[in-house]
Amino acid sequence: MQATSIHDVQWWGKQLEQFVNDGRCKSPGFLKPFHFVMIALMMKRHSISGIKLPSDLANYAARMGLWDAADITGQPVVAKNSATGKFLPVERIADKNTVSASADALSLIAAKACADDLTVTSLRIALEEILENCFAHANMDGGLWGLACAQSWPGGRKAQIAIADCGIGIRSSLSENTETHQRLAKENSCSMATEWGVTSKPGKGHSGYGLTVARQLIENNQGALLVCSFDEYFSMTSGYATAANCFPWPGTIVVLEWNTDIPLDVNAVYKSWPIPSDMTEDDFDF
Question: Cα angle at 217 between 251 and 161, to 5 degrees?
Answer without folding.
Answer: 45
